[in-house]
Each structure stands twice: as structure tokens, then as C-alpha cells.
Amino acid sequence: MLEKRPGYRKPSQKHQPPGLFVLYEDRDIIVANKSNGLLTISTTKEHDNTAYCHLTNYVRKGNKYAKDRIFIVHRLDRETSGILVFAKSEKAKIYLQENWQEFTKTYYAVVQGTLEKKEDIISSYLMENSIHIMYSTKNSAEGKLAKTGYKVIKESRNFSLLEIKLFTGRKNQIRVHMADIGHPVAGDRVYGNKERNSRKLALHAASLSILHPFTKKEMTFEAKPPVFFNALMQKPQGSTK
Predict the structure, then answer these.
(1) What pTM did the predictor assign?
(2) Residue in 49, 15, 21 with CA at minimum distance from that of residue 35
(3) What Å distances lie between residue 5 and 13, 124, 168, 209, 215, CA to CA?
(4) Among residues 88, 182, 215, 237, which is most buried (max CB within 10 A)?
(5) For 6-18, how does the pLDDT look when each residue is reduced to its tens digit (9 = 90+)?
(6) Does 120 qualify as catalytic in the annotation?
């Protein structure tokens, strides 16, 4: 049962922002399930079609002059679906960001092939090159430590479904680490081997446990992976449908 601070309101099942489904909202936070293909925040090429913009409009109830606003706590890649939490005040944002590494983040991913080790922790130091691509290095003085734990949940002839725990939160961490061990995330055009094994990136932020910035009570939010994960696990070799 989620702790309900005064001001909690049950999200409307009818009125949902584009590309998002609001899971929880109160005076301090708003939590949503983001769809694949939606940016978290704007870029130089896209300003309006983002989770941040849609949720800002949602809390303002369509009134662009309203003072209500949200604050960015963390991000998901555009092609990654799953749970996003935004703060509703600067104080809540600071608290969540300062404690972010202590919170529990669980992802699901469909990766290529079958893994020899069914459970493991991958560690490396991550760096970013001039074209904003992340890569692993052994140089601890230049890179930032990244640790990713995984466990195989299900296997098929061509793919494996993994449950992934993030011990750190580096940019593209899961995608880089899975590519490092020779099992890139299905549909990854950047870190994968460019095979058209999936039209979408099979990476989903499935569960997030935090301490509420006001009550300090633990809250866990969950969102099921997209249906294409199951279809991908059952897909015949060589098919892109």
C-alpha cells in the first residue's frame, strides 16, 4: 500500500498525457510509465514532444499560465520505456537526486543469444567520445565506475530475457555493458551489431523503489514490459516482424 500524503490524488484513467501513463501523483512527486520513442527532456531537434513537456501540461491542466511545474530527477533514453519520476518542488528534486544511488532500480531487457553465465555483475569505467557514444575503459582516472547486475529469466533459441539491477546510473550503462559481453540489447542500433532483430529497443525500466521526499517512507512503483518483449522471445530466427 502506497503512503498517501495529504494532497494525494488518484491519477485519471481517462485523461493521460501523450506517450505516458501516470502511475502516482501527490504534492511532491509524479510517477509515470513512459513509452518507447518518447524523449525525457528536449533536445536541439525536439522541444515539445517530451515527457517533461507533456507532464508539465498535465499538472497545469492545460493552462499554460498556471504556476504548477515539475522538476527533472533522472532520465530514460528515448528508446527505453518504463518508470520515470519527476519532483514537484526544488526541495523534492534535490532530495531524490542526492539519494538516487541508494534507490533500487530494476530493468528488463531482451538481449541477443544465450549467456554462459546465468547471473553476474559487470563492472567497468565508462567514458563518452566526441560523438556522445559511451564506451568502457580500464582507466579509472578517466572513466566513471559503472556496475550492472543481471539474471537470466528466460531463454529462447535466439534471445534471453534478463532482469537487471543498476548499482550505478551512468548514461547508456546497460546497453554498453551488454554489448561488452557480446549480448547487445535487441534493437540497439548504436551499441548492437546492426542486425534488424527488433524494430524497438528491448529495454524497460520495470521497477523503482524510492524514499518519499516528504514522508521518507519507501514506495515501490512497477510497470510491466511492453508486449513486444514476449513476441520477441518467441520470434523465429531472421524475422524482423
Answers:
(1) 0.88
(2) 21
(3) 21, 40, 29, 17, 7
(4) 88
(5) 566 666 666 789 9
(6) no
